[in-house]
Protein backbone atom coordinates (compact mmCIF):
# COMPACT_ATOMS: atom_id res chain seq x y z
CA UNK A 1 0.00 0.00 0.00
CA UNK A 2 0.99 3.59 -0.59
CA UNK A 3 0.20 6.11 2.13
CA UNK A 4 0.02 9.83 1.46
CA UNK A 5 -0.15 12.69 3.92
CA UNK A 6 -2.68 15.39 3.05
CA UNK A 7 -4.21 18.30 4.96
CA UNK A 8 -6.58 21.24 4.58
CA UNK A 9 -5.62 24.68 5.88
CA UNK A 10 -7.96 27.52 6.71
CA UNK A 11 -7.71 31.27 7.10
CA UNK A 12 -6.30 31.64 10.66
CA UNK A 13 -8.81 34.23 11.87
CA UNK A 14 -11.81 32.26 10.61
CA UNK A 15 -10.37 29.04 12.00
CA UNK A 16 -9.74 30.65 15.41
CA UNK A 17 -13.28 32.03 15.63
CA UNK A 18 -14.70 28.69 14.55
CA UNK A 19 -12.78 26.88 17.29
CA UNK A 20 -13.96 29.40 19.86
CA UNK A 21 -17.59 28.79 18.86
CA UNK A 22 -16.91 25.05 19.03
CA UNK A 23 -15.45 25.33 22.54
CA UNK A 24 -18.24 27.65 23.56
CA UNK A 25 -20.72 24.87 22.82
CA UNK A 26 -18.86 22.47 25.13
CA UNK A 27 -16.24 20.83 22.92
CA UNK A 28 -12.99 19.71 24.58
CA UNK A 29 -9.82 17.93 23.49
CA UNK A 30 -9.51 15.79 26.61
CA UNK A 31 -9.01 12.68 24.49
CA UNK A 32 -5.98 14.23 22.78
CA UNK A 33 -2.80 12.76 24.24
CA UNK A 34 -0.37 15.42 22.93
CA UNK A 35 2.34 12.76 23.03
CA UNK A 36 5.73 14.08 21.91
CA UNK A 37 9.06 12.23 22.01
CA UNK A 38 7.26 9.32 23.64
CA UNK A 39 5.69 11.15 26.55
CA UNK A 40 2.71 13.35 27.38
CA UNK A 41 3.24 16.91 28.66
CA UNK A 42 3.01 17.62 32.35
CA UNK A 43 0.33 19.91 33.76
CA UNK A 44 3.04 22.54 34.26
CA UNK A 45 4.04 22.33 30.61
CA UNK A 46 0.47 22.36 29.35
CA UNK A 47 -1.94 23.97 31.84
CA UNK A 48 -5.67 23.99 31.21
CA UNK A 49 -7.62 27.14 30.37
CA UNK A 50 -10.62 26.04 32.46
CA UNK A 51 -11.24 24.29 35.75
CA UNK A 52 -14.61 22.59 35.19
CA UNK A 53 -15.64 19.79 32.86
CA UNK A 54 -15.41 22.05 29.84
CA UNK A 55 -15.13 25.67 28.78
CA UNK A 56 -18.68 26.07 27.51
CA UNK A 57 -20.09 29.56 27.46
CA UNK A 58 -16.68 31.26 27.47
CA UNK A 59 -16.57 34.68 25.87
CA UNK A 60 -14.23 35.51 23.00
CA UNK A 61 -12.29 37.77 25.35
CA UNK A 62 -11.76 34.89 27.81
CA UNK A 63 -10.77 32.64 24.93
CA UNK A 64 -8.15 35.11 23.76
CA UNK A 65 -6.86 35.89 27.26
CA UNK A 66 -5.80 32.33 28.14
CA UNK A 67 -2.02 32.15 27.55
CA UNK A 68 -2.11 28.33 27.32
CA UNK A 69 -4.84 28.17 24.69
CA UNK A 70 -3.86 25.56 22.12
CA UNK A 71 -6.06 27.33 19.59
CA UNK A 72 -3.25 29.86 19.18
CA UNK A 73 -1.15 28.95 16.11
CA UNK A 74 -2.76 25.52 16.07
CA UNK A 75 -2.03 24.89 12.38
CA UNK A 76 1.70 25.51 12.75
CA UNK A 77 1.90 23.38 15.87
CA UNK A 78 0.03 20.47 14.27
CA UNK A 79 2.16 20.54 11.12
CA UNK A 80 5.56 21.02 12.76
CA UNK A 81 7.89 18.57 14.49
CA UNK A 82 7.53 19.55 18.14
CA UNK A 83 10.49 17.40 19.17
CA UNK A 84 12.75 20.00 17.52
CA UNK A 85 11.82 22.52 20.21
CA UNK A 86 11.60 20.22 23.23
CA UNK A 87 7.90 19.45 22.74
CA UNK A 88 5.83 21.47 25.23
CA UNK A 89 8.76 22.49 27.43
CA UNK A 90 9.07 26.22 26.74
CA UNK A 91 12.34 26.57 28.65
CA UNK A 92 14.40 24.59 26.14
CA UNK A 93 15.13 27.59 23.90
CA UNK A 94 14.26 31.29 23.58
CA UNK A 95 10.77 32.05 22.33
CA UNK A 96 11.93 33.77 19.14
CA UNK A 97 14.11 30.80 18.19
CA UNK A 98 11.33 28.37 19.07
CA UNK A 99 8.85 30.20 16.83
CA UNK A 100 11.25 30.19 13.89
CA UNK A 101 11.99 26.48 14.23
CA UNK A 102 8.28 25.63 14.46
CA UNK A 103 7.36 27.76 11.45
CA UNK A 104 10.20 26.42 9.30
CA UNK A 105 9.30 22.87 10.24
CA UNK A 106 5.61 23.41 9.44
CA UNK A 107 6.46 24.92 6.03
CA UNK A 108 8.81 22.06 5.17
CA UNK A 109 6.32 19.37 6.18
CA UNK A 110 3.54 21.09 4.26
CA UNK A 111 5.71 21.33 1.14
CA UNK A 112 6.55 17.62 1.33
CA UNK A 113 2.91 16.53 1.60
CA UNK A 114 1.48 14.84 -1.45
CA UNK A 115 -1.43 17.25 -1.36
CA UNK A 116 -2.91 20.06 0.67
CA UNK A 117 -5.93 22.27 0.08
CA UNK A 118 -7.35 25.54 1.33
CA UNK A 119 -10.85 25.92 2.75
CA UNK A 120 -11.26 29.25 0.98
CA UNK A 121 -10.58 27.66 -2.45
CA UNK A 122 -12.88 24.64 -2.58
CA UNK A 123 -13.07 24.21 -6.38
CA UNK A 124 -9.33 24.65 -6.85
CA UNK A 125 -8.75 22.23 -3.97
CA UNK A 126 -10.95 19.65 -5.69
CA UNK A 127 -9.18 20.19 -9.02
CA UNK A 128 -5.73 19.72 -7.47
CA UNK A 129 -6.81 16.62 -5.55
CA UNK A 130 -8.26 15.01 -8.68
CA UNK A 131 -5.19 15.80 -10.78
CA UNK A 132 -2.76 14.72 -8.04
CA UNK A 133 -4.37 11.32 -7.40
CA UNK A 134 -5.95 10.76 -10.83
CA UNK A 135 -9.47 10.30 -9.49
CA UNK A 136 -12.69 12.28 -9.71
CA UNK A 137 -15.29 13.14 -7.10
CA UNK A 138 -18.90 12.31 -7.89
CA UNK A 139 -20.08 15.82 -7.05
CA UNK A 140 -18.31 19.17 -7.33
CA UNK A 141 -17.14 20.86 -4.14
CA UNK A 142 -19.29 23.74 -2.92
CA UNK A 143 -17.85 26.99 -1.60
CA UNK A 144 -19.71 27.87 1.59
CA UNK A 145 -18.84 31.41 2.62
CA UNK A 146 -21.51 31.53 5.31
CA UNK A 147 -20.16 29.69 8.37
CA UNK A 148 -20.39 29.99 12.14
CA UNK A 149 -17.14 31.91 12.07
CA UNK A 150 -18.36 34.33 9.39
CA UNK A 151 -21.43 35.10 11.48
CA UNK A 152 -19.24 36.47 14.29
CA UNK A 153 -18.89 40.23 14.01
CA UNK A 154 -15.62 41.55 15.41
CA UNK A 155 -14.13 45.02 15.40
CA UNK A 156 -10.75 45.91 13.95
CA UNK A 157 -9.02 45.78 17.32
CA UNK A 158 -10.25 42.22 17.96
CA UNK A 159 -9.21 41.24 14.45
CA UNK A 160 -5.72 42.51 15.09
CA UNK A 161 -5.58 40.72 18.45
CA UNK A 162 -6.52 37.40 16.86
CA UNK A 163 -3.93 37.91 14.12
CA UNK A 164 -1.29 38.67 16.75
CA UNK A 165 -2.18 35.52 18.71
CA UNK A 166 -1.91 33.51 15.51
CA UNK A 167 1.00 35.30 13.87
CA UNK A 168 2.74 32.02 13.01
CA UNK A 169 -0.41 30.65 11.42
CA UNK A 170 -0.80 33.90 9.49
CA UNK A 171 2.66 33.52 8.00
CA UNK A 172 2.14 29.82 7.32
CA UNK A 173 -1.15 30.53 5.56
CA UNK A 174 0.45 33.17 3.32
CA UNK A 175 3.15 30.66 2.42
CA UNK A 176 0.58 27.90 1.84
CA UNK A 177 -1.62 30.12 -0.32
CA UNK A 178 1.29 31.08 -2.55
CA UNK A 179 2.44 27.46 -2.89
CA UNK A 180 -1.13 26.26 -3.47
CA UNK A 181 -1.72 28.73 -6.31
CA UNK A 182 1.64 27.85 -7.85
CA UNK A 183 0.67 24.17 -7.88
CA UNK A 184 -2.73 25.01 -9.30
CA UNK A 185 -1.23 27.08 -12.14
CA UNK A 186 1.29 24.34 -12.86
CA UNK A 187 -1.44 21.71 -13.11
CA UNK A 188 -3.53 23.96 -15.36
CA UNK A 189 -0.57 24.60 -17.67
CA UNK A 190 0.24 20.89 -17.72
CA UNK A 191 -3.39 20.12 -18.61
CA UNK A 192 -3.38 22.71 -21.43
CA UNK A 193 -0.10 21.34 -22.79
CA UNK A 194 -1.47 17.81 -22.77
CA UNK A 195 -4.66 18.95 -24.52
CA UNK A 196 -2.57 20.80 -27.15
CA UNK A 197 -0.41 17.71 -27.69
CA UNK A 198 -3.51 15.56 -28.22
CA UNK A 199 -4.94 18.08 -30.70
CA UNK A 200 -1.66 18.06 -32.63
CA UNK A 201 -1.64 14.26 -32.74
CA UNK A 202 -5.26 14.23 -33.92
CA UNK A 203 -4.42 16.72 -36.68
CA UNK A 204 -1.46 14.58 -37.77
CA UNK A 205 -3.68 11.50 -37.92
CA UNK A 206 -6.32 13.43 -39.85
CA UNK A 207 -3.76 14.76 -42.36
CA UNK A 208 -2.33 11.26 -42.81
CA UNK A 209 -5.81 9.87 -43.49
CA UNK A 210 -6.57 12.65 -45.97
CA UNK A 211 -3.25 12.07 -47.77
CA UNK A 212 -3.99 8.35 -47.88
CA UNK A 213 -7.44 8.98 -49.37
CA UNK A 214 -5.97 11.31 -52.02
CA UNK A 215 -3.34 8.73 -52.90
CA UNK A 216 -5.98 6.04 -53.22
CA UNK A 217 -8.08 8.38 -55.38
CA UNK A 218 -5.15 9.14 -57.68
CA UNK A 219 -4.27 5.47 -58.01
CA UNK A 220 -7.89 4.65 -58.75
CA UNK A 221 -8.13 7.36 -61.41
CA UNK A 222 -4.88 6.17 -63.07
CA UNK A 223 -6.07 2.55 -63.11
CA UNK A 224 -9.41 3.55 -64.64
CA UNK A 225 -7.69 5.59 -67.36
CA UNK A 226 -5.33 2.75 -68.34
CA UNK A 227 -8.24 0.31 -68.38
CA UNK A 228 -10.20 2.59 -70.72
CA UNK A 229 -7.24 3.01 -73.07
CA UNK A 230 -6.90 -0.77 -73.34
CA UNK A 231 -10.58 -1.08 -74.13
CA UNK A 232 -10.38 1.67 -76.74
Automatic annotation (TrEMBL):
Its main location: membrane. It comes from the Eukaryota. Residues 195-212 have a biased composition (Basic residues). Pfam families: Sulfotransfer_2 (PF03567). The keyword Secreted does not apply. It catalyses: alpha-D-glucosaminyl-[heparan sulfate](n) + 3'-phosphoadenylyl sulfate = 6-sulfo-alpha-D-glucosaminyl-[heparan sulfate](n) + adenosine 3',5'-bisphosphate + H(+). The keyword Membrane applies. One of its GO terms (cellular component) is membrane. It is found in: Membrane. GO terms for molecular function: heparan sulfate 6-sulfotransferase activity. Keywords: Glycoprotein, Membrane, Signal-anchor, Transferase, Transmembrane, Transmembrane helix. InterPro entries: Heparan_SO4-6-sulfoTrfase (IPR010635), P-loop_NTPase (IPR027417), Sulfotransferase (IPR005331). 6-O-sulfation enzyme which catalyzes the transfer of sulfate from 3'-phosphoadenosine 5'-phosphosulfate (PAPS) to position 6 of the N-sulfoglucosamine residue (GlcNS) of heparan sulfate. Belongs to the sulfotransferase 6 family. This is Heparan-sulfate 6-O-sulfotransferase.
